[in-house]
Structure formats: C-alpha cells, structure tokens
Amino acid sequence: MGLDNRQNRMNHGHVSSIHSGNSDRLVDTRRMETCSDRVGAYRRGGGSLRALTGLCSAAARRAAWLRFVVVALAFGSLLIVAPILPAAGAVECKIWWGTVPGQDPLDRFPTYFSGTRVAVVAEVRTTTPGAFIYWVRVRVGGEQTKYVQLYPYVFLPYVYVQSRFASTHFADGTVVQVTAEAMDTMGQYGTAAPRSSTVYNKATLYGRNEWEQNPSWVSAGVPAARTNLTAMNHSICAENTTLGWTKADILADLVACTAFYVNTHGACDEPHPLLSDYDEISTLDEWIYPAEAYSVRGGAVGSGYPPFNTGSPPVNVAFLGACWTGPKNCWAWALLVPEYTAYNQNWCENQCEVGWRIRNRAIAAISDATFWSALSLGATAHQARDAASDAYWDAIGEPRKDPRETLSVWGDCYTRPWGLYTYGDTIASGFWHD
C-alpha cells in the first residue's frame, strides 16, 4: 500500500485493519495521521524525515529506552531483594533445672532454692531458616547471672546455657523468679516462661546456759554464730541458751534447719555424743547420740534427692563446738542426710560437718566466732576451719598446730554458705553467681 493511499485512509480518523499476509495488525490511524502530516510538511520544506517524525525522533527513542530500563530494574530488584527478606521463624526458650543438658523428662523444677549450689539451664533454639543463636541471657531474681554471645564465634542453631547461683544472695523466704531470653542472627527474639521457687536457708543455734548466759563472755559462741549467719541471709529458726534445755528440745529444732551450731560438752568415747543442758537443773547427764539425730534428720528430709525431696532441705553446714566431735564421721553421717542431691548423686557436695578433734577449752567467742566470721567473708569450710584453729592456739598461748589435727571437716571441705560454691577455693567472677 503506497504512502498516498495510507494518507487518504488515515484522514478519515478511524481505526483501520492493515493486512499483511494472513495476519492483521490493529493500528490507531489518528496517530499515523499526525505522523503523515508532519512527514508531508517536512518533505515540502526539504528536511530530514527521521529527525522530525514523532515515532522516530531521538527524544522518543530515549524515552522508550528509559521505560525499558525502569521495567528491567524493577523486575530485577524483585529477584535480588526477595531472598534476603527475613524468613519466617522464631526463637524458642525453656528453663530447666540442673546441669547440662538439663532436660528432665518429668519437667520438674526445684521445690526450694537452698545453699550456694543451685543450677538452672536455658535451652534455646532458633527455627528461623539459615539463622544461628546470637546471644542468650539468664536472669535470677531480676539480676543477670549469665550472658553468652555466641555469634560470630560459634554457629549454633541450638544451645544449652547453664547458670549457677547461691540462693543465700536472697533473704530466706524470698520467691525468686528465673527468666531467659535470646536472639538469633536474623533478629528473631524469644523469651522463656518464667519459673520460680522459694529460698530456704534457716539456722538452729544451741548453747549451754553456763557459757551463754552472758553474751560478752569468752565462752559464748551463739552471738557470733547468729550475727554471721544472719549476715549470710539465714533466718534463725531456733535459738536456745535457756537453762536446762533438753535432748527433746534440740532434736525437735533439728527438723527445720539447714545450718546448725551447738556449743556444749562432748564425750571422748564413740560415738561421741553431745551433752544437753538438762544436767544444769538436775543430777542427770542427758546425752544426745548421732543415731537419734540421724532419725530426726532422715524424717525431716523425707524421700528423694534434694531439691526434689518430700521434706525440708538438707543441712548444708554444721559446726559442733564440743570436745571430740571430729575424730570420726559419726555426726556427719547423722546430720548430712541424705548426703547426695539430684545435682550430684556420686559424692557429698557442698555439705559438711565440722568438729573438734581435741578436748578444747571453752573460748567459743574466739575460736568458733572466727569460723563463722570467715564463712561470712566467702571462705570455704576448710579455710574457715584453718582460721579457727589458728585463732584457738593463739588465744591459749600455744604454738599453732596443724588445723587438720585440731578440727575435722567431714563431707565436702569446699562447702561455702556465702558466695557461689565453686568446687574449690576460687571465688566466682560474680561472687554469688558464675
């Protein structure tokens, strides 16, 4: 079809069908009319057809190219951005008791927090595709006890984080809540459902009236024991220095305590019993035997391993300020029931009984007070024993002897009632937590 015929048809201003073989192309004749008019006018003026044609101008070509680039970039951005958008996922946290890995098929949690060897475990996992655990934080009683940043040092989607702490950081009877939180490398954040338990640290103190009736006497040991145990956040559940206290009194008050102190007479013959104060109001000597104490403490603790036993917590520390209570482990056997815990069922851990191996003089305000004071400063049982031994020999004016020949520590010599139990003499970095 010639240009002149196309012009004639376009001038009618309608849409025409242009045939090329068997195919039709639908063309807007009004646009072509404009183009044709400009072509004709320019021909008459001798100009360049390509320069002025609306469909063929440089400006039109640049506009078309720009539209193509914009569309291409938009499409490409979808391909590039989509893979790095945050993927669906979550960080899951759960709190367990005990040592790593911490999982308990019964999903138990301590019925109480007692002593200085308490452990909880935060189990953390991320379900975000391609993500790893970034950091984990554990809080006990609202205070941070453990913070671990894993990424970029280790690449783990699943981790257990243990936090150990001393319950004596909190006052006896305090309800302490444990929480955990974590974040993964894709920014997903998770928290554990909090778990709580009640702090239980109580002391029973007994002393012969003849030595304790005046707290300022050098023979009085109860005042120093009370002061230092109170400083270590133990409540005094029983204190008895009244005239004539009996075997029944002291055995009854053994039920509730986790710390025990008695300042009285002992016997050199096995099983090295303790003398009650009943002889001060009668002519009878009333002796308290380890087997009797064992029966009471066994009933108090009940069945099962602490802290899941059916009764009260075990005795953590006991000091028998009486002659001959240290050569044998009779009193350790009686007082440290059941000797094992759910944390450690292989040996006695963070429990001890301390007793004199000699016929000591009644200067408890010096020797025994030194023992309790050392513990309140964070010393372990054997360190406190050593200090008490040195103080004793210094006070009576004799050369210092081997503390192990003066006082025995039965059970765990690294027992620590104030500050975190560390399996040794080392002080924990957080003092009351690891």
Report the sheet-strand fraction: 15-25%
Mean pLDDT: 86
Total number of helices: 12
Q: What percent of the residues sit in helical stretches (DSSP H or I)?
A: 25-40%
Strand order within the widest sheet? Answer: 12-11-13-16-17-18
Shape: elongated
The termini sit apart by: 94 Å
Major sheet: 6 strands, mixed
Unreliable residue stretches: 1-56, 69-85
Q: Report the order of strands and helices.
A: HEEHHHEEEEEEEEEHHEHEEEHEHEHHHE
- Class of secondary structure makeup: alpha+beta
Key attributes of the depicted protein:
12 helices; 434 residues; 5-stranded antiparallel sheet; single chain; alpha+beta; disordered N terminus; 6-stranded mixed sheet
In short:
The protein is 28% helix and 24% strand. It has 434 residues and is of the alpha+beta class.
Describe the protein in words.
The protein is an alpha+beta fold and about 425 residues long. About 30% of the residues lie in helices and about 25% in strands. The chain is built from twelve helices and 18 strands. It has helices at about 5-10, 30-45, 50, 60-80, 210, 220-230, 245-250, 290-300, 330-335, 365-375, 380-395, 405; strands at about 15-20, 25, 90-95, 120-125, 135-140, 145-150, 160-165, 175-185, 190, 195-200, 200-205, 235-240, 260-265, 275, 285-290, 315-320, 350-355, 405-410. A six-stranded mixed β-sheet has the order 12-11-13-16-17-18. Strands 5, 6, 8, 9 and 10 form a five-stranded antiparallel β-sheet that branches. Strand 1 (about 15-20) and strand 2 (about 25) form a beta hairpin.
